[in-house]
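Friendly challenge for the regulars: who can give me the structure tokens for this chain first? No prize, just bragging rights.
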Amino acid sequence: MPEGAEPQEQGGQRAPELGAGVTADRERKAFISYAAADKAAADAIVAALERVGVACWIAPRDVTPGVFYADAIVQAINAAQLMIVVLSMNSVGSQHVLREVERASAKRRPLVAFRLNTTSLPTGLEYFLSASHWLDASGGPTDRALPHLVTAVRRLLASPENPGEIAGMPGDSNLRATGEVIAPIGKVSIRSRADHIG
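First reply, four minutes later:
Bragging rights claimed.
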């Protein structure tokens, strides 16, 4: 749940409706964890993924009215196949984001960190994200990194038994994130978390 989120519209903006390739009854495969101040980036991630048929769960859009917010969050994390954490100076201080990451880690869900800037992580997030994959979008516009995030998420969903292996899709032989390998893609790179500690 985004820090400071309410179960209604925030600041006059709504999360995008389900994308063209997603139906309302389809399983939500990706849980999006973000701080309310990063709502525009989170909405862009949801739109990019749902455009290619990857159903997302994002608060407050997908919280059923009348349902206890914490129950909805935990149920959505339990049902999701992976979590995307939007990392920024806003989210690293959010207790909601930390709790969501902890729950996903406890449920052994793959975590994909989408880094908006180079803010250092507090030790709690560092602990949970130390072995996860990172997509570093801090060097330019978020939109430029979204196709790489979509590719990584689709690979993880296609190969849940081996979440560390996202290489090997045709046309993307330069895109790898296994162990300590860093493979730059223009100014965007996917990295293991160990490259960002400190």
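Helices lie at 39-51, 69-79, 95-106, 123-129, 142-158. The chain has one domain: 30-196. Your move, everyone else.
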